[in-house]
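Two folds, back to back.
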Amino acid sequence: MGGYSSEYRISINSGNVVYKNLDRTKYEPYRVHILQHSWFVVADDDTPYPINKSNFTVKINDKIIIFDCVFNTIHGTPGENGLLQAYLNLVGIPQTSCDFYQAALTFNKRDLISVLKPYDIKTAVNYFVNKGDEIEVEEIIEKVGLPCFVKANKAGSSFGITKVKLAEDLEQATKIAFKEDDEIIIESFLDGTEVSVGVITYKGEILALPVTEIVSENEFFDYEAKYLGKSQEITPARISDEQTEEVQELAKKIYAKLKMRGFTRSEFIFHNNEAHFIEMNTTPGLSEASILPQQAAKAGISLKDLFGSAIESAL
C-alpha cells in the first residue's frame, strides 16, 4: 500500500481494509508501505521494519520473513503502472494484480485507447498533447468540440482533470494536467449515464460484477465526488437489462482481450444509448466506500472471499 503519487493516502485506506478482512486461519498478513523514500513493514504497534529491496524480505525480531504473495493495493505509480509488477516478477514473488505490461498499458490512457480500437470499442474523440507542444486551441476545439475534458494521460483518482467550457480556459486546463504528467489527453464530452463495471477473476472464472451508476453532484466524477461524498453511487445501475448485459459483456471482452488478471474496474458512458469506454483501473479502490467492494457485496461476495480469491488466483 502507499505509492509515490497523489493517491498514496487512498491506497493506504485500501490496504488497511484488505489487511483487516483477510482470513487469519489461512493467511498471516503484513502491512507493507511502499513510499518514495522508504519501504517498510508496519507492525501492529506501528513500529516500522525496513524492507530489503534486493529480495523483498524483512527482518522482524531477528527473524527473516519471506513473503509468499503480495496483495497489491497501490493506486498510481509504482503499483498500477507496471513498475512494482516487474520488480516482483524479477524477485519471484506472485502478486494479485495484472502483469507488468498490462499495468503499463492500461495506466496510459492514450495507448490503451489505441490498442482497443481494432476491437470496435467505442470511445470519446481524443486529442493528445505532450509537454512542450504548442497548444493549438482552435485545432483542438475543431476536433473534440466544447465542452471537453482535459486530463493527465497517466494519473488516477481524477487528479489533473478539468472540464473546459470556454476556449479561453483550455490553456489553463492543460497547465493543471501537466502538473500530474508530461502527456495529456483532451476528450470530447460524452453526454449520458456514467457507469462503472468491476471485472474480476473469481474462483478461476472471469466474472463481471453488478453495474454501478455514477451520479456526481459536481461537473463530473472528480476527486470530491469519488472520496468526499459528492456523488451517488447506485448499484445496480438504473439502466435497462439489455444495457446492463451489453456493458458487462463489453467490460469482460476488454478484460479478456488484454489478458488481465486480478481486479479491474472500467468506466463507461452510455452516449446516444451506446456504451463508450473511458478508462480501466487495474488496482481499484478497496476501502469500504469504494465501488468494487460495493459491487461484490451486491453479488453476494464477502470481502473475506473477494480478497482470498485474489490471493488464491495469484498463487
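---
second:
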Amino acid sequence: MKNISILVPESSVMQAICDPQYLFSAVNNFLQAAGKPALFDVKLVGATREVKLANGNYSVHADQLLDEVEQTDLIFIPALFGDMEAALLRNKKLVPWIVEQYNKGAVVASLCVGAFLLADTGLLNGKKCSTHWLFSNEFRRMFPEVELVDGRIVTEEGRIYSSGGANSYWNLLLHLVEKYTDRATAILAAKFFAIDIGRNSQSAFAIFQGQKAHADAEIRQVQQHIEENFAEKFTIDELAEMVAMGRRSFERRFKAATNNTVIEYIQRVKVEVAKRSFEISRKNINEVMYDVGYSDTKAFRDVFKKVTGLTPGEYRGRYSTQASLSS
C-alpha cells in the first residue's frame, strides 16, 4: 500500500486538493474491479483539522495532522491562490514537514503554482521545475536558484515532480499513476477523466507579455522598440547601438534582465503577434508570416513550433475564433 498525503495549505485551490484525491481513489476502484487489491491510502494532511479556503466559503477537513504522519510515500502540494509571498508566509509551518518527509524517502509533487511552496523548502535549489506560465517571472524573481523550465508540463528530478499551469497538473497525476501502477491503468484513468495523456507542453497556452520587471532602463527601451516594430528585421548590433552599448555588454545585460537572448526575445514577440492574428483574423499562414517579418516559410514554421509546440496550421485550427464561428 502506498501512502499518499495531499497537503491542505492555507490559500490553496480546493480543486487541486480534490482532483488528486478523486483520481487516486478512482484508480483504487479500477484495480479492485480488475480483481486486484487497492494500492493507495489517500489522506488529506494539514497543520490544523480544518482549513478554510476561498475567503471562508469552503472548508477542508484534514484526515491527519502533520505530526500524525510518521512516514508517507507521496506528497502532493496543491496550487496556491492570491499573493504568493503572503501565501508562503501563511504556510511556513508546512515547510519543515515537507523537508523531513522528503529526507525520509517520500516523493514530492507540486501542482501548478504549488511550485512556490515547494521552492520555499529549498529542495528545488539547483534543480529544474515547472509552474504556470503566467507566474514564471515572479517565480524566477523569488527563487533565482531554481531552474524554471518554460513550457514544460511535467518536470522530474530527484524524487521531486512539478507541473505546468492549471489543468496541466492532470498530466503529472497520470504520470504518477503510471509510475505506481502501469501504462494500461494510466490510460484507463485518462479515458475516464477525459485527459490527453500525451500532452507534454503548455507552451501553446502561454501569452508572452515580455519580462519588464527589472531595473535596466536601457534594456526596457530596446524591448519596447522590438515590440512596437515587430515586423522589422533587427540585428543585435543595431539594437546595441540604439542604447550606446557594445554588443557583448548588450547581450549580457539583455539576457540577465529578460531571461531570453536577444534573438529569443525577438522570436517570441513575433510569434505572439502571429498567434493573436491566427486567433482573430481570417489571414492565411503566409499573410501572417509576412506581417510579422518572416519571408521564409520553413524558418517561420520552425520558430513558431519551437515557441508554441504546435505548427502554425495546428495552432490556427485549434484556437481560431473565425474557424469556430464558421463551423
